Amino acid sequence: MAEWQRCALAKAWRTLDQHQARTPGNLFHTVLRLSVDHPDEDSEALAARAAALAGRPLRADAFRKQLSRARRLFAEALLREVTQTLENPTPQQVEEELIELGLMPHVADFLPDDWHRTV
Hints:
The protein is mainly α and 119 residues long. It has one domain (2-118). It has 7 helices and no strands. The protein has helices at 2-22, 28-37, 43-54, 60-85, 91-100, 104-107, 115-118. Helix 2 packs across helix 4 (60-85). The longest helix is centred in the middle third of the chain and has 26 residues, at 60-85.
């Protein structure tokens, strides 16, 4: 299970990295990585780090917006990855798999109210 969790998380990170690479101005991978790597820093400090890495200015409010969007895309990538690995997945199976893998905390806040009908 730990290996499957690592694989799903790695795939979600790759999704963010690829999205950032092909979308000008997008820093999804960078901002989420910084947020994870420096959890005790505020958005001002994280924005300064992201700006240094990106080589361009980034305000704290823009950092927070990018981070919110990055978290959503990360959650969608995890949900898609888990769903694709199940044969004829039902919403209940997907939810059970996310819980068993310890991935539900990464996606719970980003699931739409009707997500059970979208699987």
